[in-house]
Specification:
Elements: H1 3-19, H2 32-52, E1 54-59, H3 64-67, E2 73-75, H4 77-86, E3 91-95, H5 98-107, E4 112-114, H6 130-139, E5 144-148, H7 153-157, E6 161-163, H8 168-174, E7 179-183, H9 186-198, E8 204-207, H10 220-229, E9 234-237, H11 243-248, E10 251-252, H12 255-263, E11 270-273, H13 276-285, H14 306-314, H15 326-342
Parallel strand pairs: 1-2, 1-3, 3-4, 5-6, 5-7, 7-8, 9-10, 9-11
Bound molecules: 1,3-dihydroxyacetonephosphate and iron/sulfur cluster.
Length: about 350
């Protein structure tokens, strides 16, 4: 066998050892053959990464051959924004969706931040423009403007503070204003109202009208049916789900918190009301856990692929490079830094 063939075989073994338990997507398999087909690409990407001094950040929702094959850091939005801030990299490849790469560019202005597919939008981020938020703000001049991290750089530049699904409740509770203009997730706003009531914190939450096309579809009546079929089932939901779904779940939290909950909970089965990539991560990292089907695919996250990561690393096209006007970037950075001040990284 040639040295190159040996290298591919060793890489196949490495990938297979990580991915052998993954079966999170209907019609896809991460068997030995599949791992052998990824191996030349992951080897090439990891080589290009070293040559370019690049760091690859991947959201937990992208395909497992990316998170376990080439990512330097994988996780939820908050974790990845902390890693972007810490990165001293010349180049950041953000494998996720475009608003996440914009966040990395806001925090790392000197790095070249690139995305594998410029079409990787987000139904939440794309629901509100900076001009739309300015119009809303004119109606609520006394409100603190809080934007979910799933928002464009323009919206962040118009906001007082940014939040993620992991720190949204604690940050809103800490704000002195009674009235909060929360954008762009209408369902998360409803979950915030419930949580503020539960905490005895008097807040009026005004919201814009965005939803996540992945999480809005989960249905509380399906949870009751699943519980009857799988006794002892634990239902784990994301706060982008509707309030009836959140109320019927055993745990609601960011993707990072959902992983922690599953790993720390002895239960015969779990139902994950989120994107299937998160189930894949748990199958890799905690293969003893059992999941019943029910997760959904985000079409934007799934636009990413190893081939596109390789292409963008080798020679990014202009549309794959994230650029922001400096005054807008500075205003957006203030809103994210305020988040770090109110919810410091652990
Ligand atoms: P988190 O990773 O912050 O929980 O967000 C989930 C999500 O839907 C990102 O688009
Ligand atoms: Fe946006 Fe929903 Fe996809 Fe996350 S899962 S990127 S919120 S559309």
């Amino acid at each position: 066998m040639t040295a190159a063939a040996h290298e591919v075989e060793a890489e196949t073994e490495r990938l297979f050892r990580a991915l052998m338990h993954v079966d999170c997507e209907p019609g896809r398999s991460w068997n030995y053959e599949a791992c052998r087909s990824f191996a030349p690409l992951t080897l090439e990407i990891n080589r290009l990464k070293r040559e370019h001094g690049a760091v690859i950040l991947a959201h937990s929702y992208v395909e497992p051959e990316i998170t376990y094959g080439v990512a330097d850091f994988k996780g939820d939005s908050y974790f990845l924004s902390v890693k972007a801030r810490e990165a001293q990299a010349r180049m950041i490849v953000f494998v996720g969706v475009v608003f996440m790469a914009e966040t990395a560019k806001i925090l790392c202005p000197d790095a070249t931040v690139v995305v594998p597919d410029r079409g990787a939008g987000c139904s939440l981020a794309d629901s509100l423009t900076g001009a739309g938020l300015r119009r809303l703000k004119a109606h609520y001049p006394d409100a603190a403007v809080v934007c979910y991290i799933n928002s464009t750089a323009e919206v962040k530049a118009e906001s007082d503070v940014c939040v993620t699904s992991g720190n949204v409740y604690d940050i809103i509770e800490k704000l002195p204003q009674r009235r909060i203009l929360f954008v762009p997730d209408r369902l998360m706003a409803e979950n915030i109202r419930t949580e503020m009531k539960r905490r005895g914190c008097a807040k009026e939450i005004v919201a814009s009208d965005g939803t996540c096309i992945v999480h809005e579809v989960f249905d509380a009546s399906a949870i009751a049916i699943a519980r009857a079929r799988f006794p002892g089932l634990h239902v784990v939901a994301h706060p982008e789900c509707a309030p009836e779904v959140a109320a019927a779940a055993d745990f609601v939290g960011s993707t990072g918190a959902m992983m922690k909950y599953v790993r720390g909970t002895p239960a015969p089965y779990f139902l994950m009301l989120t994107e299937c990539g998160l189930v894949g991560r748990l199958q890799v990292e905690d293969p003893e856990k059992r999941f019943i089907t029910g997760c959904r695919l985000c079409p934007y996250m799934k636009l990413n692929s190893l081939a596109k990561v390789r292409d963008v690393l080798a020679a990014p096209r202009p549309d794959q490079i994230v650029t922001l006007e400096e005054p807008l970037r500075c205003r957006a950075a203030r809103c994210i830094e305020r988040m770090f001040a109110l919810a410091p990284p652990a």
